[in-house]
Amino acid sequence: MNDLTPPAPAAGCSATPVLKERGQHEVFCGLTGIIWLHRKMQDAFFLVIGSRTCAHLLQSAAGVMIFAEPRFGTAILEESDLAGLADAHEELDREVSKLLSRRSDIRQLFLVGSCPSEVIKLDLARAAERLTQKHAPHVRVLNYSGSGIETTFTQGEDACLAAMVPVLPETDRRQLMLVGALPDVVEDQMLDLVRGMGIEDVCVLPAPRAEAEMGVGENTVYALTQPFLGDTHAALTRRGARHLPAPFPFGEEGTTAWLQAIAREFDVPQERFEAVTAAPRARARKAVARAAQPLDGKSVFFFPDSQLELPLARFLTRECGMQAVEVGAPFIHSTLMRDELALLPDGQVISEGQHVDKQLDRCRAASPDLTVCGLGLANPLEAEGLTTKWAIELVFTPVHFYEQAGDLASLFARPVRRKDLLQLEAAE
Ligand code: SF4
């Protein structure tokens, strides 16, 4: 679609019944988000109030980063805390004071809840309030939960950003807020595209530094770059900001539709939109066509994991020639997913939540060419002869917007091509 008139309502999967499943599920916890959030927010510190298991998860997931000047750590809850024998609040205050006296560069401190802190019902909201009073104005203390109880790993970012929204200053500026943590190079491309359309008053949540001039109010409109930001969406709406609904900026089509929603809101002339997007769109189409060759005509099965499943299924089916067998998502946010569901071709199972055994049975029966799943399922499925892609890689790799569209297709194409080559060799 080339013009900026609102798209005609499409049906796609909008009316497809969703298979709702509740049972054992296989996901990472929200602490994982700290790995990419601490790189974006350069004066923030993430203090996980958790067990040694949480500390190990952070250290192994963050890998080499812990040897750099760290912007995250763990206040370990000992057995005496868990048994209610010690005053965890007093200990926490002591730990925070020690940390802040050592690190004057910290301007935002996030107290991050975990499974153990939730189990003992440690009130981190109260702790954050108390510690803000103690350490203001130099440091603002906020809290959110990264617990793995009934959540999925991308919810950590959502909870973190949602915690920041209530403390943003009020503004009546007419502005565009772009919401979601993206790698710097991708964020720069996004800002170039938006500013190229003549929209100057633009801010990004999360900002690199606490003092960044950013407010929110009734004249703020916002576009989400990540599909898992449901709580942040609700928090921004409560502050009076207005959401610009759109498909998410994955692939050429999603990026164009996402930019069109912004262009319509800001009355960007059609010619200007074309001038800004024509060249990168052409590059994206070409790169996807080249990278997606091994995917053409192949089938894909998504286990619920990252909450990127529906937008990625839309990209793979509409731009890469794949057929989806099942698209499983941990949660389906009806407002945020409306445009994705309208574009997704009908014909696959759409499931929400997980009953992992039943879903594994469906996957084995379908024997898809590619299965997108969490780390815990990938190895056993590979051992059974299925080709897999780790969903978490899609969150750690730059995949948004035009210049990454070819890389996004390549991420899926690589395991399929490897399987094709192995089969060829075996046949010779
Ligand atoms: S928050 Fe829960 S799931 Fe995550 S590492 Fe800690 S104990 Fe494990």
UniProtKB/TrEMBL annotation:
Which cofactors does the annotated protein need, by name?
[4Fe-4S] cluster
Q: Which reaction does it catalyse?
A: chlorophyllide a + oxidized 2[4Fe-4S]-[ferredoxin] + 2 ADP + 2 phosphate = protochlorophyllide a + reduced 2[4Fe-4S]-[ferredoxin] + 2 ATP + 2 H2O
The source's superkingdom equals Bacteria
Instruction: Please report the stretch or stretches of sequence annotated as the Nitrogenase/oxidoreductase component domain.
Output: 29-403
Q: Where is the signal peptide?
A: none
Which keywords are on file for this protein? Answer: 4Fe-4S, ATP-binding, Bacteriochlorophyll biosynthesis, Chlorophyll biosynthesis, Iron, Iron-sulfur, Metal-binding, Nucleotide-binding, Oxidoreductase, Photosynthesis
Q: What is its EC number?
A: 1.3.7.7
Recorded GO MF terms: 4 iron, 4 sulfur cluster binding; ATP binding; metal ion binding; oxidoreductase activity, acting on iron-sulfur proteins as donors; oxidoreductase activity, acting on the CH-CH group of donors, iron-sulfur protein as acceptor
Which InterPro entries does the UniProt entry name for this protein? Answer: LIPOR_BchN/ChlN, Nase/OxRdtase_comp1, Protochl_reductN
Top EC class for this record: oxidoreductase
Q: Does the keyword Acetylation apply?
A: no
Q: According to its UniProt record, which protein family does this protein belong to?
A: Belongs to the BchN/ChlN family.
- What is this protein called in UniProt? Light-independent protochlorophyllide reductase subunit N
Organism in which the protein naturally occurs: Pseudaestuariivita atlantica
Gene that produces this protein: bchN
